[in-house]
Every structure is written in C-alpha cells, then in structure tokens.
Write a structure and sequence with these properties.
With 71 residues, this protein is an all-beta fold. Helix content is 0%, strand content 59%. It is built from no helices and seven strands. The strands form two sheets. It has a four-stranded antiparallel sheet with strand order 4-5-6-7, with no helix packed on it.
Amino acid sequence: GVSYVIGSNNNVIVLFPDHTKYVCREGHSSTVHSILVVGDLVWTASSDKSIRVWRLGADARSLDQVKVLHG
C-alpha cells in the first residue's frame, strides 16, 4: 500500500511503507498545492490552474495520468 502522497514543487511523490518513493515528474507545470487520495485514484491541484487525476499503477509503484481538468 501507500503511506503518503505529497506535492513538492511541480512533482507528485508517493511514499511507501518500506521508505521507498516514486517521484512523478510529468504533469503539472507549477507548484502542487492540494492532493486527494480516493482508493487507487490520486487527485492533484496546482498553480498551473489544472487538476489532474492519476491512478496508481498495477505495481503500485507508479502513477498513470487518467484525466486533466483545466480551469
């Protein structure tokens, strides 16, 4: 499972119980301010005026972008 999902600059970082991490460097072009995790979906909101929806990969060690909402 996943311990935490955090935003750092324009990256989304997934932290795992074994202290390893996955850094998603693609997607947002500005600071990630908000993150919501619902099941295997991760919603991120950024200063770039977009909300991105990600799905944890089948290996639970990656994020696959599902949708982009622009505001």
